[in-house]
Design the sequence.
């Protein structure tokens, strides 16, 4: 008859490996994504060959598409400015060869339909159902208060822009407070990290990580680590990005996968956390969600 000591038996009990709970594939490059107050993810995709830009919106918990492949009259020089409440705000460019934004397209969040547009003004910020914009006339900056529902200009600010600057500071503080539920990774620095966490990160990366490009986030005994390394099979020195989910309490990996291959340069913020979900873009074209925590 055998007697087992629990400490000896425990290593045989393995936590179930994480699998993606949903994936949303676009087939083309996902350029930017925004998490909204409506608990959706709004995205911008770009097709380099066709020089076309489209937009999508999915439920953040289920991955169900609310709408996708929405395009507007400008096929390429257009992008997401911000997402606010029931609206998505897009911008165009002053000139195709210049990064300066110009023009405002207000899109309905629920449907992806264009509600109104203003081709002359530049988006500034939104506050209390009003959109604030500006433009320059003879090097002088003019501010505008716009009814966000209709696009009607309500007020013009010429010599009293200080009022809008102060309002903008208030908006920035409120936006910062409102994003407390969304967490982005930090760049790893051994001097600033707990020694146990630093040891785990070294074990995960195996000393092969591209220096200065290890990102991590620790929350409730779950450690998320994202890092870049050179592809062994590539003669051109391209990189691959690995995301690992590690259970600190059980001392085991729950998930580890190459999420991007063949990239020339690394990018920051390779994942983010909202509620009990981890979100990342796999293969540059598939929005993916994991759920390592219980709600």
Sequence:
């Amino acid at each position: 008859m055998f007697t087992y000591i629990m400490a000896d038996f425990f290593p045989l009990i393995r936590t179930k490996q994480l699998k993606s709970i949903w994936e949303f594939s676009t087939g083309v490059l996902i350029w930017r994504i925004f998490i909204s107050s409506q608990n959706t993810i709004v995205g911008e995709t770009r097709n380099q060959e066709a020089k076309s830009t489209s937009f999508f919106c999915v439920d953040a918990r289920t991955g169900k598409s609310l709408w996708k492949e929405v395009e507007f009259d400008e096929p390429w020089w257009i992008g997401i400015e911000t997402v606010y409440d029931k609206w998505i705000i897009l911008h165009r460019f002053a000139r195709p060869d210049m990064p300066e934004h110009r023009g405002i397209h207000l899109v309905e969040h629920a449907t992806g339909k264009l509600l109104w547009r203003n081709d002359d003004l530049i988006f500034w910020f939104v506050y209390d159902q009003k959109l604030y914009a500006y433009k320059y006339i003879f090097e002088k900056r003019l501010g505008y208060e716009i009814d966000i529902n209709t696009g009607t200009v309500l007020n013009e600010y010429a010599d009293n822009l200080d009022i809008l600057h102060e309002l903008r500071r208030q908006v920035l503080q409120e936006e910062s407070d409102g994003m407390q539920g969304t967490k982005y990774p930090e760049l790893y620095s051994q001097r600033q990290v707990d020694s146990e966490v630093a040891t785990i990160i070294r074990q995960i990366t195996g000393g092969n990580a591209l220096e200065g490009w290890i990102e991590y986030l620790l929350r409730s005994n779950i450690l998320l680590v994202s890092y870049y390394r050179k592809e062994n099979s590539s003669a051109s020195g391209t990189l691959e990005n690995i995301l690992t989910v590690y259970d600190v309490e059980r001392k085991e990996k729950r998930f580890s996968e190459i999420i991007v291959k063949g990239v020339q340069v690394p990018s920051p913020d390779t994942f983010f956390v909202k509620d009990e979900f981890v979100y990342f873009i796999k293969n540059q074209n598939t929005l993916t969600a994991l759920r390592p925590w219980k709600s």
